[in-house]
Design brief:
The structure is a homodimer. In chain A, helix 1 runs parallel beside helix 7 (about 215-230) and helix 2 packs parallel to helix 3. Chain A contains eight helices and nine strands. The first copy, chain A, has about 270 residues and is an alpha/beta fold. The longest helix of chain A is centred in the last third of the chain and has 17 residues, at about 235-250. Chain A is about 35% helix and about 20% strand. Chain A has a single domain, classed as Ribokinase (UDP-N-acetylmuramoyl-L-alanine:D-glutamate ligase, 3-Layer(aba) Sandwich), CATH 3.40.1190. Chains A and B meet through helix 1, strand 2, strand 3 and helix 2 of A and helix 1, strand 2, strand 3 and helix 2 of B.
């Protein structure tokens, strides 16, 4: 047995039976980055590589008991939060995570790539009140950013820039806002922008790959949490997470008759 | 994107938040072996590296919908079944898995290493009626083998040999019985014995490692299913699974204050 003990990275997310996204994607990404993954499942989903057909939030008493039991001997060095299906879970998660005082990455999952709604309608404003203020980084895509922005300010501008929307989120307490652009636009490059306190965003540019991919967002946010758990500062953790995610997408496969490719998270 | 499409291996098991065992262990082992892992979670557990404190079977209607949705575009080439918490789930699983006609590995999880009961009391006899007959291989440890044997025959012998007990299970339909011996005895070697139609068992001998380990059984059975999914014949799949599991135990780590070491499943 090796004596070196890897940091623990806790993933809190929904379960995707197809294995492309959700808690399975998180566990694989965290392990591939070199951390030990612990996990809490917030919801079951009926989904495959085509779409999400049903979401079943799990009873919160059981979840909270699981979290407390876990923290007793496996305290995490960072946390990744994905799907939080309803307000009740968001509220006690915020309560229980505050005392940990470790970096939290929030992937504000609201709608699936295939169009199916994953979280309840009012979750954007609930996340804004509860978990967003605790975050080191939130990782919305363009759609999620707009929804969060509308929930963050009383008079949202219809044509607000990415910088304006990111500022509105940062004003609510999260230190960084990584806007993922993989799903947006047809050009040959994708750009993820991370807005922090600095005067301009950190830019992560990758060649666009032929998609669609099922689970790229989960893979990115889990990698980011893992690299923060390993002690990297935010810009370096972001660069490492972007690199690992791009590698997973490059190695992606379409098992059987799958409609979307599944990222393959491989220790490099 | 790579064009080669890895075989799908479906894991059906409970969730262990600590990440050593359960569905997380299965997903990691299946991915490391080179398959695409899909998964179905039969039960949530409150557990950490010390023991299991509660088991919460998940509502079966949702589970069955998940399975059917999954099979529609990601049919598996092999299936691993771990914790089946109650008779109802065992019965419809058997119904839905028969038409697949792929190798099934059944890890008949009944009691946790720490002593906590995972499956309902009568599950040994229910497994015997429902899932055991469908199996390519069952992978009981010594304790589980005795419990299954007592459920298999009307007049169990108190001092039945491993061969006798394995025969009783094989008489109910499963083709191979791999008896795992890692938890048994203090000697410097561990021996796993696989009884098949052959006159003597296949023997897999490894140097005993300093344990206890949390999730070695899950890792072995998931590896075995993955190597069967990749098309290996049983003796070779067993040898590969034993080798991969031993490597995962050699690389095991104790994160934070964990009481038991967690196998580390690394693509070799």
């Amino acid at each position: 047995m090796k004596t070196a003990s890897p940091p623990v990275c806790l993933a809190i997310a929904g379960h995707d039976p197809s294995g492309g996204a959700g808690i399975g994607a998180d566990i694989e990404a965290i392990g591939a980055a070199g951390c030990h993954a612990t996990s809490l499942i917030t919801a079951l989903t009926v989904q495959n590589s085509r779409n999400v057909y049903a979401v079943q939030p799990l009873p919160q008493d059981g979840l909270r008991a699981q979290l407390r039991c876990l923290l007793a001997d496996l305290p995490p060095a960072a946390v990744k939060i994905g799907l939080v299906p309803n307000p009740a879970i968001a509220r006690w998660l915020a309560e229980d995570l505050v005392p940990l005082n470790v970096p939290i990455v929030l992937d504000p999952v609201l709608v699936a790539t295939g169009g199916g709604r994953l979280a309840e309608e009012d979750m954007a404003s609930v996340l804004m009140e509860t978990l967003l203020p605790l975050c080191a980084v939130a990782t919305p895509n363009h759609h999620e950013l707009r929804e969060l922005y509308r929930a963050a300010v009383p008079d949202p501008l219809p044509e607000a820039s990415l910088a304006t929307m990111a500022s509105a989120l940062r004003a609510r307490g999260c230190r960084g806002v990584l806007i993922t652009g993989g799903d947006d636009g047809p050009g040959p490059w994708t750009e993820d922008l991370c807005f922090t306190h600095a005067p301009w965003p950190l830019v992560y540019r990758q060649r666009r790959l032929k998609g669609p991919f099922h689970g790229s967002g989960c893979t990115l946010s889990a990698n980011l949490a893992a690299y923060l758990a390993l002690g990297h500062a935010l810009p370096e953790a972001l660069a490492l997470a972007e690199e690992a995610t791009h590698a997973a997408l490059l190695a992606a496969v379409k098992p059987a008759q799958a409609a979307q490719a599944m990222p393959r998270r491989i220790r490099r």
